[in-house]
Design brief:
The chain has 199 residues and is an all-alpha fold. The chain has helices at 2-46, 48-59, 63-78, 88-92, 96-109, 116-125, 130-134, 138-147, 183-196, and strands at 151-152, 155-156. A two-stranded antiparallel ribbon has the order 1-2. Strand 1 and strand 2 (155-156) form a beta hairpin.
């Protein structure tokens, strides 16, 4: 009889512990969600005026204007009023934190389809690496252009002709920024920076 009572108590206690663990896991899950939201807010608060318009455009689904705004944000970060003045060497010093903020906004509002981190994954999927950026391997850039929808039938499309909806190929945007006067040299340097920053 005492063994049965003892087993019953153990079962009851185990059941109570399981319920407490489930409640604890739920609290942890809620806390993780709150931390993720807080981190995003913190990134924006750090320099709210710089990213606010980009966030608003992306949230509204206005990808075409968000693409232009991405250039304006990069210009604000580099303190260069003219895109042509931003050199490949400037990219070597471009702050990783700023790249992450831009990337996180694009990823969030495109359901994970667009952003710099998505683009670097696509670049690596066609053979891109540190070595190809250092060697200025334009063959890999052309392959990348094809998978993200920038290059069709061996020709580069104009930015105005790209699809600015969520139906665009994965990694298609942001796109205008890549249309630098420095051409493939800037592309290679920027990919190199994304790799260094581990996006």
């Amino acid at each position: 009889m005492s063994n049965e009572v003892h087993e019953s108590e153990v079962t009851t206690r185990l059941s109570a512990i399981e319920q407490q663990l489930q409640q604890f896991n739920q609290l942890l899950s809620n806390l993780s969600d709150r931390i993720a939201k807080s981190e995003e807010s913190f990134l924006l608060v750090a320099d709210i005026h710089k990213y606010k318009k980009l966030q608003e455009l992306l949230a509204a689904g206005n990808l075409r204007e968000a693409d232009w705004e991405t250039i304006r944000v990069i210009q604000a970060i580099t303190k260069e009023p003219d895109l042509a003045a931003i050199t490949p060497d400037d990219m070597r010093e471009f702050p990783c934190e700023e790249l992450r903020v831009i990337d996180s906004l694009w990823r969030k509002y495109s359901q994970g389809r667009f952003g710099f981190s998505v683009q670097i994954q696509r670049y690596q999927s066609v053979g891109g690496s540190f070595d190809t950026t250092i060697n200025q391997d334009n063959t890999v850039i052309e392959k990348f252009g094809e998978v993200v929808g920038w290059r069709v039938n061996g020709k580069w499309l104009k930015c105005d002709d790209l699809d600015y909806t969520l139906a665009a190929p994965i990694g298609c945007h942001p796109s205008r920024w890549w249309n630098s006067p420095f051409g493939s040299k800037m592309t290679n340097y920027f990919f190199n920076r994304l790799l260094v920053c581990s996006l």
